[in-house]
Amino acid sequence: MSRSVKRTPVCNDHRTPRTRWSKRLASKAVRRFTEDVYKGKWYRKVYCSWDICDYRFFKTRQQAINEWETSRSPQQLKLTRSDVINCWERYYKRK
Q1: Is the entire prediction scored with pTM above 0.90?
Q2: Pick from 1, 49, 61, 59: nearest CA to 25
Q3: Is residue 46 within 8 Å of residue 28, measured between CB atoms?
Q4: What is the DSSP letter of 90?
Q5: What DSSP letter does each residue of 20-43 carry, written as one string?
Q6: What is the per-residue pLDDT across 27-84, written as a single tens digit (0 to 9) for each?
Q7: Beta bridge mates, 58
Q8: Do 72 and 50 meet the contact criterion of CB atoms below 8 Å apart?
């Protein structure tokens, strides 16, 4: 079993098709740009970075437990404390 864990409790949005597609469009635009790229980071001006949808969600373990304790939704009430911690670790801790 792997012992690798994330350094920060972050959940990224890398699995949605829209994010992959917009990153692909950005790389195509930069590759097909006919003029010279003068500086190293100038390629960022070729494609608008706002069109790429990268979402990052930060949540600590204690925040997840507090949300579960204060929540009144039926889905959250079905879960136990160990289930909440396991879900948090799945999304925010494990790679």
Answers
A1: no
A2: 49
A3: no
A4: I
A5: HHHHHHHHHHHHT--S---STTGG
A6: 788 778 777 766 666 666 777 766 666 677 888 899 999 999 998 888 888 999 999 9
A7: 10
A8: no
Is 1's pLDDT higher than 60? no
Whose CA is closest to 5, among 86, 95, 75? 95
Of 78 and 16, the structure prediction assigns the larger pLDDT to 78
Which pair of structure tokens corresponds to residue 71?
């929540």
Question: Position of tokens 């790679």?
Answer: 95
The token pair that represents 91 in the structure block: 């999304």
The tokens for 14 are: 């890398």
d(CA 42, CA 65): 44
Q: 67 near 54, Cβ under 8 Å?
A: no
Radius of gyration of the chain (CA): 20
E strand spans, the chain: 10-12, 56-58
| Cα–Cα distance measured from residue 69 to residue 76, given in angstroms and rounded to the nearest whole number | 9
